[in-house]
Design brief:
The protein is α+β, with helices and mostly antiparallel strands and 382 residues long. The protein has three domains: 146 residues, Gyrase A, domain 2 (2-Layer Sandwich), CATH 3.30.1360; 84 residues, 2-Layer Sandwich (Alpha-Beta Plaits); 74 residues, Elongation Factor Tu (Ef-tu), domain 3 (Beta Barrel), CATH 2.40.30.110. It has eight helices and 20 strands. The longest helix has 10 residues. The chain starts with 18 loop residues before the first strand and ends in a 15-residue tail after the last strand.
Length: 382
């Protein structure tokens, strides 16, 4: 789960009209290159560069400012009921203290957003939305709250969210946290103190590595950020976040998924709970599952002739069959990789395809996703 391309909206707004996270000045002091990302002034990289930041996460610990992501609490007697109505996953099976990745779908099965829901209790659920979708998601939930006792409380501007990711993430964070992080399973969370500041600490992330995301009050963000750096966390920007999630085969809203894609073709059928009571899009999704999707998302290794980018045409026997949704040079694998949709018949690993780059076909072949193994902590057994 993340937001639209680093290019989307870049340069369209002046610095004075962009939203700024509580860590904006900290990024500037560190010499970050700042860009307009979904209306927020965000660090794309620091002086060390994207590759160094990427490898720091894979081998040690990187820290990310995720404060542009929406943080919205749904509260009331029917908070869980509203979550159930809007989300495809059966959140009634998620216990308090646990979180779940899910999608919000239109009646036609198209994806409104991919989100994480944190069940704080029977009458309170915290949702983390993509930054570019926060306003849309708020309206979507509000419009589907008819007849329910539930209210939305947008705390995005009052809080900060910091990601701590990598094999050393636990050791870096544990030195600042008064809770036992070793006892926290994947997709679980707990209230604790981090750098002596009240925090919500979750074992979640978007890199494929083990790690955490820490939500604190906006006024406490810099103190926590600085202590994480002192403890060994390497600041990493949006550029490294994108190469990391691409290697991990994770969907990016606005690329792999949007209102014109459905969960089954996006390899997200596992977050659709057709057995739960009715939810928006259920009937259409049931039909899609029964007949099977016509296309599917695949990983592609590409010959080293330039860097594949989103939108590049995927070919088979000289004919266009799809397009890349993401593409990059993998710092971990040291080769060019891409993700894109192809017809089901062409989705078998090993299938020979080509990517049109600068008007010429470049050899590629289908590989299983993810490109690099995941090392995230398993969630607790139900």
């Amino acid at each position: 789960m993340a937001d639209e391309s680093l290019r989307d909206g870049a340069g369209h707004l002046s610095d004075t009209t962009l939203l700024r996270t509580p860590l904006n000045e900290a990024h500037r002091r560190l010499g970050a290159r700042m860009v307009d990302f979904a209306g927020w002034d965000m660090p794309v990289q620091y002086p060390s560069g994207i590759i160094a930041e990427h490898l720091a996460v894979r081998s040690g610990c990187g820290i990310f400012d995720l404060s542009h992501m929406g943080r919205v609490f749904v509260r009331g007697a029917d908070a869980l009921g509203l979550a159930q109505r809007c989300c495809t996953r059966d959140l009634s099976r998620i216990r308090p203290g646990e979180a779940a990745y899910t999608v919000v779908c239109q009646p036609d099965g198209g994806i409104v957003d991919d989100v994480i829901g944190y069940v704080l209790g029977p009458e309170e659920v915290l949702f983390v939305f993509n930054a570019s979708n926060r306003t849309k998601d708020m309206a979507w939930f509000s419009n589907h709250a008819s007849g329910l006792s539930a209210t939305l409380d947008d705390q995005t501007l009052q809080t900060a969210l910091i990601g701590i990711q990598g094999p050393a993430a636990q050791s870096v964070l544990q030195g600042l946290c008064n809770g036992d992080l070793g006892a926290l399973p994947g997709y679980a969370f707990a209230r604790a103190e981090v750098a002596a500041k009240p925090a919500l600490v979750s074992r979640t992330g978007y890199t494929g590595e083990d790690g955490f995301e820490v939500m604190v009050a906006a006024e406490d963000a810099e103190a926590v950020w600085d202590r994480l750096i002192e403890a060994g966390g390497v600041p990493a920007g949006l550029g490294a976040r994108d190469t990391l999630r691409t290697e991990a085969g994770m969907a990016l809203y606005g690329h792999e998924i949007d209102e014109h894609t459905n969960p089954y073709e996006a390899r997200l059928g596992w977050v659709v709970s057709l057995k739960k009571p009715d939810f928006v899009g259920r009937d259409t999704l049931a039909q899609i599952k029964e007949r099977g999707p016509e296309r599917t998302l695949v990983g592609l290794e590409v010959e080293p002739v330039g860097v594949p980018r989103p939108g590049f045409v995927i070919q088979h026997d000289g004919e266009p069959v799809g397009a890349l949704t993401s593409g990059t040079h993998s710092p971990s694998l040291k080769r060019s990789i891409g993700i894109g949709y192809v017809p089901i018949a062409l989705a078998t690993p090993g299938q020979a395809l080509a990517i049109e780059m600068r008007g010429k076909p470049v050899a590629a072949h289908v590989v299983s996703l993810p490109f690099v193994p995941h090392h995230s902590r398993p969630r607790a057994k139900m």
